[in-house]
Amino acid sequence: MSEILQAEAALNLTFSNKALLQRALTHRSYLNENPDYPLEDNERLEFLGDAILDFVTGEYLYHRFPEVAEGRLTNLRSALVRTERLAQFADDLQVGEHLFLGRGEEDSGGRERPAILCDAFEALIGALYLDQGIEAAREFIYPIIEPALQEILASDADKDAKSQLQEIAQSHYQLTPTYRTVKEDGPDHAKEFTVQAVIGLKVYGTGVGLSKQSAAQAAAKEALELLSQELRVNNR
């Protein structure tokens, strides 16, 4: 119980049902090594938390930007709830320090692994919702996403790099970019993908991410920079 009280203090939360928080912090690797553990892992809570997070973030953006079109709101929400950003939220809250991990997972760096941190953050949202309701979830999520939103707006991180790349490539070269996965690393639950953005026969960018989609976006972003340089040279 002392571990859960420490986690509550770090998160600045108090759970009526402490077992919910403990479940949210329990990775499946811990159950594999502790078969008599009385609780289940955090995967069901992660499923619920993912839905709650999407809803609360969408609601927040809807009221925050009353004149913004649906497409932009969708892009903003996607930028706020992508795996890497949720992992950063978890890291900022020191969630990794309070996880119940199997020894093998811990020895391999599980407390810092973005996929595990992201899942734990979503599970935490699910646990908070079940313990205290949607308003408590809002009060917890809003202060976390607002600074991230400002960062996204300042850096245009919500813009879809793949769409921009397609527009430019079709406009100047009459070619549509393609994306190919060239590498997959890590176990099934924490894979890292490497994707290349190709225009014609030329590789314009390479990106790495925790999903093929995020890796393709990173590749497109790099390709945009190279393509822009190429067009500037050609137009001189």
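The above is record 1. Record 2 follows with the same two-line structure.
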Amino acid sequence: MTDSAPFSSPARWAERAANSAVFFCNGLGIGAWAASIPLIQARLGLSDGALSLVLLGFAAGAVLSMPLTGRLAPRFGVARATRFCALAFAAAMLAPGLAPDLPLLIGAAFVLGLTNGALDVSMNGLASGIETRWGAPIMSSFHAAFSVGGLGGAALGALMATHSSPWVSAMSLVALINVATALLVWRALHDPEAPAQAVAPAFALPGRAALWLCACVALGLLLEGAIGDWSAVYLANNLAAPPSIAAAGYGAFSAAMIAGRLGGDRFVARFGQARTVRYGGLVSAIGIAVALIAPQPLASAIGFGLVGIGVSNVVPIVFSAAARTGSSPAAGVAMAASAGYSGLLLGPVLIGALATLFGLKASLWLLAACAGAITLTAGAMR
């Protein structure tokens, strides 16, 4: 297939569908991992402090692998890297459920994070190349597949929660699904050119324009992480919502994010990346205000849903823009993804620390400021 082939050719559709399947399976794995964490904690009798070490191990593995993958993937080809990283991620999913004690669980979580970070960079780098050859904005559709997979993995984890064991669990089932999918799409994932023989340039600090991209993705993932961890707590503790209603906050956020990403490519094609990010930041800020001002849990959940719509396309757009700024698409994505993970890790912790000092409601207003700050970074998308 040459770059002059029409973007609607069957080969390009197959390439796009294959990488979308990889995104879906990655989301499926992350959703199953999130749903399995409480079960693993109960099985090993871990305290919250011990569990935080496990989650830190996962994050450390991801942060370590992202810049390395961004440097090495161009040498071997991002499609080839995506294939093998997808298999490695699937294999790594088996280990946490089988870990017999805390040290081995931390090690298993580290390896899972390591493979997830590598897959994140490689599949997004490949998606950027597909988008370039496609000739139209399609990055949001890949991330929509990830979000749908995440909900599916979480739902599967909930269904199997009462029937799981170390050997038969949502994570082991998803691992098998991911291996089968990786093998199924293997031939459809390919690089349009021979991979570069020289090693990609060593890691360097991003320039001024790239720093704005890093700030934007960090703020976007800070919002995602904070809403994910604190929306249900806010509805339960501040608005006295029962557990079934408290979960509606994150449910509305997740469903709205999927809807926003499914329509994101059309919005970007019509309004451009910069305006989409700017409008997204404004909608997110309004959503947080609605969520915190609303006196009823369901009305507050609608506000969290607005946040999901607003922030839904920030990460796909930044990854698409970052892929154009690095020495290679994978290197640019690695830069943005590393910054994004810092925001994802910092957000929930920062909100928790401020909540102990000023109360949860007051601390969540910081997220409105973060959403407003996203609008200031929108010009960097050009």
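The first helix runs from residue 10 to 44.
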